Amino acid sequence: MKKPVSRILVINDEPLVLKEFVKGLNAAAKSMENPFGVVFSGVSSAEDALLAIKADGDIQAAVVDDNLDESGALHLVQNITRFRPELDVYILIAQEQEDEVVDALFSESVDGYFYREERDYRGMYRILHAQLQEKARTPFYDQLKNYVLLAKDAWHTPGHSSGESLRGSPWVSDFYEFMGEHVFDADLSVSVPMLDSLMEPRGVILEAQQIAAKAFGAKRTFFATNGTSTANKVIFQTLLAPGEKLILDRNCHKSIHHAVVLSGAHPIYLDSSVNKKYGIYGPVPKARIYGAIEQHPDAQALILTSCTYDGLRYDLPPIIEAAHEKGIKVIIDEAWYGFARFHPEFRPTALEAGADYATQSTHKVLTAFSQASMIHVNDPTFNAHLFRENFNMHTSTSPQYSLIASLDIGRKQAVMEGYKLLSRTLELARELRAQINSTGVFRVLDLEDLLPPEAAGDNVKLDTTKVTLDISACGYTVEELQQVLFERFNIQVEKTTFNTLTLLLTIGTTRSKVSRLYDALMRLAREGHAPRRIYRTPEIPGFTELRYLPRDAYFCGGEAAALLDEQESVNQDLAGRISADQIVPYPPGIPVLVPGQTITPEIIQYLVALLRSQKTVELHGILYDGYLPCLRILKHEEESALKPA
Ligand SMILES: Cc1ncc(COP(=O)(O)O)c(C=O)c1O
């Protein structure tokens, strides 16, 4: 493995003292064990320190002299922690000022102090190194690796027994070879106590979660091995008793709609803003959120998605403040934003903005295996017992340990080199945007293009690592373009609308990948196809009356009613009936119906238009009676037995 470089910046405005310290500390680092490649360098002003910290992603810590010029050490420390909260910050104290400085800096997140006059370079190095070691620790991964190396005979699950069941098989040993030996060695069971328990963590899982909480700025962090889909359900069941109100964006992920059914919550849906030109659903306009908070001060919780799939990020602080004023808890679905803490360009994170809960699909945007997510908690009245019961209700009693190890590693990487990698990703995103625009045919959409007019004054920001381009001038439909990119150029994109295509840049994006994409788009642009008439996906109808609570409606047996009969004529009798299921056209993935919602002629028309369209839209929730597409609706007698919402 490549050895890292860890630069530690010393900031002191007395040239001789600075020189002496940098020299002394480097000599100590050279003569002592130095696995992190620690080197010290010096700057003589707060301004230079901030410039260095911005430019150099290898800086891991700063040692600030308390005698620093007029702006002072305090100011610098505040700026460093605001800019890169994951950095360690130490103060070099001049003896005579001790109390004053310690008092002023006490409330800041300072990691420690050294007395300048002691000139104890070896002692300083030892402490700085130990702190780096603490941040770089991966307690769960280390324990898993150690256990695998112990090569114990397994008399427990899983049945493949470290891959033994596959290894000699003439039928399936290729799977073992394809996956690699450690996939099987590290697939262990809860019968191994050394590896702790995800259901009741007291050892290495607890430690790994505690280190993650510190890294992400949470009071508590929980590792979820069933994705953010499950994380959202756990939180809902903790915060919401049946019948209690929840304010939510109708455009939120379907796991949230499922969580409404499971918790029995009374949903107050907020329609998102819509960008009709590009078929993109944006944030809920701020005024609409404030209106719902005012109208439903008895709501228990508010959940929003930030950033959205397309990278649109709410101005969270005032929204969270308004909700908190009414005692409403705030949950932010940060499935697409788990990296945000590690670069100032993306902050504030939901937690920094004051959210009580944030759920993150670490696997989507950082280094973790699919399904590995985190739940961060800052709720001052967190009910740990109830949360644990709900967490355990949704968690397999046989969690995949590689997922937990990958969360430990994902956190370590984000802390140690997240800033550096994200700076590179942002740079690549800038380059890619310019290159795509230079094709003259494909055009990258900026915030102004993406943001629906209704949300224009809401201080929404764009995460530029999500790149959405307008493809309407290229001469292909979006499906054709997707296919050409895949088959001719080996490129798989993230998502599409009828005239846009979205690409996701992550810390795993390389310059070669960017050049290949640019090359493909440039070649397609040069082919000079005349623009095609593009089929616009029908616009999703507005929300209609919620007659019964989603849970009540969902658990009715219901009956199947056809949308179209054998002659393809539309069943207008569905109008006024109540859906028992969630019906979600994908894309865009927004439910047109939720359980308990009234079906209207517009909704019937919309669904029929989708079924008849040439575009490959999946319609989740439709059931088929032979060839006939049907909806599950409540029977009349079921309706009479239910209490209206
Ligand atoms: C906004 C949002 N929340 C939650 C999820 C679910 O995340 P996971 O795939 O980790 O279960 C997704 C998945 O696409 C999502 O887009």
Quick recap:
Helices cover 40% and strands 16% of the residues.
List keywords for this structure.
645 residues, Rossmann fold, 4 domains, 23 helices, binds pyridoxal-5'-phosphate
| Unreliable residue stretches | none
Give the DSSP E fraction (strand runs of 2 or more residues): 15-25%
* Rg (CA only): 28 Å
- Tell me the distance between the termini: 60 Å
The CATH C-level name of the largest domain is Alpha Beta
* Architecture (CATH level 2) name of the largest domain: 3-Layer(aba) Sandwich
Tell me the layout of helices and strands.
Blueprint: E1 6-11, H1 15-31, E2 38-43, H2 46-55, E3 59-65, H3 72-83, E4 88-93, H4 98-106, E5 112-115, H5 121-136, H6 139-150, H7 164-167, H8 173-179, H9 181-185, H10 204-216, E6 220-224, H11 227-239, E7 245-249, H12 254-263, E8 266-270, E9 274-275, E10 280-281, H13 286-295, E11 301-305, E12 312-313, H14 316-325, E13 329-333, E14 357-360, H15 362-365, E15 373-377, H16 384-394, H17 401-438, E16 443-444, H18 447-450, E17 461-462, E18 466-470, H19 478-489, E19 495-496, E20 500-504, H20 511-526, H21 550-554, E21 559-562, E22 584-586, H22 601-612, E23 618-620, E24 623-625, E25 628-633, H23 636-641
Parallel strand pairs: 1-2, 1-3, 3-4, 4-5, 7-8, 7-11, 11-13, 13-14
Antiparallel strand pairs: 6-15, 9-10, 12-17, 14-15, 16-18, 18-20, 19-20, 21-25, 22-23, 24-25
Bound molecules: pyridoxal-5'-phosphate.
